């Protein structure tokens, strides 16, 4: 069988970075081909070249037996190469149906036939994805998970010959992931070549036929999934054996630093829990359970409807994020691009934002102190490339997450809330974040971690709070917890 798509000796350079160094790969019809590597390895850059977003500096793309050069992503799409990027490209202000059929709208004469389009969209989402959704509703009113499913639906509808999925399950529940994998298997049987990028190795072993590894912009190798183990893939990715993944040092938590009593707000009600110094309190639950809304209310992003918040035994009123910061609370949000970073600003300016009052010299910002803070962040978190003036827009997802973490840790918070801290991050960066969490807890910081990855919650938490349909279903000691017990609480079965 001949490959439907080949990349040969691809090079791509950005200012100060040689992102791809002579990468060559082949992709075949009816195969799910995983591409893995640490953040900054070049995975997304390669996909953007295949999709026509970037032009290669050297090398060529062979598609259906002939050399091609895309001048615009629309050319790749029209040829049958459809990409679902990790950074969603849906239109929040358009309806669900308009997003699915964008560019292929149902028409009656010269006018769009909205009734038919809504009907077809509802049927398509239900039959192909098992999701019942209002096709007339604005997509922006739905969760990130639903938005991601709609973008994947748009790619499936366009009858792609090559489908590129970049971290497609990062915002999906287990049930939604299972449905997506059914769709992927169906497309595979129809002869579609699927390129699958994921940091979740268990997914790769479940759905993929081959795995290719990139490291520091270089091609390391390709092998069939049956010849590989998780340990072998990790070793190829990081260039060394990762002796310990979940890094958590044992220590005894101290006194209560945060207490929440009967707190109610958008999508949650009457939630009570406490957090101790040096404790990692995991929050588990299905998407939509109210975990993020609860934490954003504690941080002052959202108004509370009732209840009380106590910090170090003293009742506090938090009506704005500045109030939370003054009380020693930091929040690393789930959506780092929208809520955690100012993408057009540099690493230095993003890291220093919450600390401006602390680095002033009189009425002015001290450039020297700001630069020292940025240098500390780059060294402590191994942010790459190590240029303080580099705009975070041009950093990989993992390095962007490190910038978000650094800016809050620069404040030396008493309480740090981490909402999906390892979402879309490679195994090496995950291990590093676990090490940082463990160190923070050891130093007495109270850490709250929201995570949809149960192994992460079970391994890194001291206690696990489980949310179910806007209510706290229970809090269990991590030593007594299991995936089954957590899922039963999350589903409201206990």
Automatic annotation (TrEMBL):
Its EC number is 7.6.2.13. One of its GO terms (molecular function) is ATP hydrolysis activity. CDD domains: ABC_Carb_Monos_I, ABC_Carb_Monos_II. It is found in: Cell inner membrane. The keyword Cell membrane applies. SMART domains: AAA. SUPFAM superfamilies: P-loop containing nucleoside triphosphate hydrolases (SSF52540). Gene3D superfamilies: P-loop containing nucleotide triphosphate hydrolases. One of its GO terms (cellular component) is plasma membrane. One of its GO terms (biological process) is monosaccharide transmembrane transport. Residues 5-241, 245-494 form the ABC transporter domain. It catalyses: ATP + H2O + (2R,4S)-2-methyl-2,3,3,4-tetrahydroxytetrahydrofuran-[AI-2-binding protein]Side 1 = ADP + phosphate + (2R,4S)-2-methyl-2,3,3,4-tetrahydroxytetrahydrofuranSide 2 + [AI-2-binding protein]Side 1. It holds the Pfam family ABC_tran. It is an enzyme of class 7 (translocase). InterPro entries: AAA+_ATPase, ABC_carbohydrate_import_ATPase, ABC_transporter-like_ATP-bd, ABC_transporter-like_CS, P-loop_NTPase. It is a peripheral membrane protein. The complex is composed of two ATP-binding proteins (LsrA), two transmembrane proteins (LsrC and LsrD) and a solute-binding protein (LsrB). Part of the ABC transporter complex LsrABCD involved in autoinducer 2 (AI-2) import. Responsible for energy coupling to the transport system. PANTHER family: AUTOINDUCER 2 IMPORT ATP-BINDING PROTEIN LSRA, CARBOHYDRATE TRANSPORT ATP-BINDING PROTEIN MG119-RELATED. This is Autoinducer 2 import ATP-binding protein LsrA. It comes from Thermotoga maritima (strain ATCC 43589 / DSM 3109 / JCM 10099 / NBRC 100826 / MSB8).
